[in-house]
Amino acid sequence: MKIAILSRDSKLYSTRRLVDAAHARGHQARVIDHQRCYMNIASHKPAVHYKGEKLIGFDAVIPRIGASVTFYGTAVLRQFEMTGVFPLNESVAISRSRDKLRSLQLLSRRGIGLPVTGFAHSPDDTEDLLKLAGGAPVVIKLIEGTQGVGVVLAETRQAAESVIEAFRGLKANFLVQEFIAEAGGADIRCFVIGGKVVASMKRQGKEGEFRSNLHRGGAAQLIKITPEERSTAVRSASIMGLNVAGVDMLRSNHGPVVMEVNSSPGLEGIEKATGKDIASMIVGFIEKNAVAGKTRTKGSG
Ligand code: ADP
Ligand code: MG
After folding, report:
1. Distance CA 14, CA 59 (A)
2. What superfamily does domain 96-112+182-283 belong to in CATH?
3. CA 189 to ligand 2 center in whole angstroms
4. Homologous superfamily of 117-179 in CATH?
5. What are 239-265's pLDDT values in tens digits?
6. 10: CA distance to ligand 2 center in Å?
7. What is the tens place of the pLDDT at every residue in 12-27?
């Protein structure tokens, strides 16, 4: 097979691992910087152009689109889909998962456990919004943040009001969420491929940090998950319409609660914590599923 990997940097760990895994399984792999792709969207024969060349002959495309370039990256991916190339994750599912409000609404509708979460537009409703989330301490997070940036723990009502005021001043959309203190600064990342949890790790934030993101100095270790956590992860990925997903949850007193579903989960943390060859499993999934023209949109909403 000929596999395109949409990534801005061929030196990134996940990108390199996917290229190596594809080669090891006897495929061709090519890293393409999606920000350098361009297209004639009105053409009867959709195509993707890249640095003066028309890209042809790909069987599958693996999107590794950074959060800051979701808009253009998903447009390029959509163009690949229009040409009949099998996407590991579909553009629609990626856009859906990148919006925390939309994702939580979809998960909630299907009965997935979530931290109590409020969202409001008007500053007049701040007090009630805080009450809705159970009162301070609360976690306030930007709708389109990633790697822990824009996720704030407000321990008092005054702190929460100040943060909300600041975010509003910046015209940023945010959520106000119940703080799951009992998680103890740790969360669980379940790596789902094709409806199965293939690996899971616990991430523990560094001393004094409630955010467990590895990019913020968190440490990862192998963990055994409960059947409830396993089914929550599998169902969440499926609701989002993602073939490959990193489902992040917290262990709360009322069972697992999902925080987010990542559509481009990093491979470094999970491969190092579990010793598993996740990249090879991803390529294996593509081998089974990359049938030309099979690009029906999955998921809901
Ligand atoms: P990002 O997309 O930036 O990673 P998350 O919503 O995943 O944002 O939050 C980052 C981290 O903050 C999580 O991994 C978790 O450790 C911690 N966290 C987020 N929300 C809560 C919450 N409601 N209660 C406790 N900890 C939280
Ligand atoms: Mg996260």
Report:
1. 20
2. ATP-grasp fold, B domain (3.30.470.20)
3. 9
4. ATP-grasp fold, A domain (3.30.1490.20)
5. 999 999 999 999 999 999 999 999 999
6. 23
7. 999 999 999 999 999 9
